[in-house]
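ok trying this again, last paste got cut off
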Amino acid sequence: MKKKFTIYLFLLFVIPTVKAQVLFNEDFNSYSAGHLINDYTSTTPQQGGWYSGTTPPVTASAMVTPETGKGNVLVITSNGTLSFGAVSFRQAQGVIDALWNNRTAGNNILKVEYEFYGTDNFIGNCGITSQGSTLINVVFNSVFKRIVCNYWYATSHRELILKNYNTDPFPYNMWIKAEMFVDYNTKNVYFYIPTLNFQKADNFSHSRLPEGLSFGVSSLNLSSVVKFDNIKITALQTLPSYILSSNEQLAAKFNLYPNPATKVVNITNSENMLVQQVTVYDVSGKLITTQNFNEQAEIQLNVESLASGTYMLHLQTNEGTAVKKLVKK
């Protein structure tokens, strides 16, 4: 019995690794305490393959620092040379795309995650770049009191606000984990902040692949302290169940009637979410039509020209994209 139990445990822990492949992992634990890199103006990779970003001057210091319960973390503070401190880091061009291109076949979902801690003033972010622009990232912005996510949609960026802190206290002085997903199978992006229980989802229509990894912070004052830890890139075969449920929860807030419809379908929702665009696809995934709306909470969609059949409506809103099924008589 003991032998059988041991085999079971081995299978339990080995099988998931086939579906989730860690491509890159930075926890700063392999470095000695002190500066992450020795030359903040260097144009060549230094310790860990990192070098400072492309926006001089660097006006902050990034120190590898032991922290109780976490091992080493990266602590960034203003160096006081200008009013607001800033520094950024990135991996050399070609590192991330090589890792992605050599991933296990079928692992077509990109997952990026990191942990962030901030006090006082800061605009901190971490994410993936592609063709010189942001592919996906999450930004913690205490200056404008919000947490936002950015992603490449088709020919430009889109931004989703995960949380506005106009009235609620901003989450200072705590470690916050951010997770981002680019699903190349379904052309969807997902954002999840488990520490604060924020979730958003949207679609995209491009073929850009991950090429670079960068993180950094700006707008630091002399009292600001920002920390980064556990930056990780993973190639997944399937989405985690908690991400799928996020998309389903958004769709559940919308109501379509009549459904089946003949000429017009009414689209309403229970939380006054504003609809910006409705894209209609057939069941094979073919784009049929797109209609734009002026931030409307309730809309009437003319479907008279559609042939009889089943369609998927992608509702672009200020909270993300909800997908609803429509039957046309």
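PB: full thing came through this time. Residues 45 and 51 are 5 Å apart (CA to CA).
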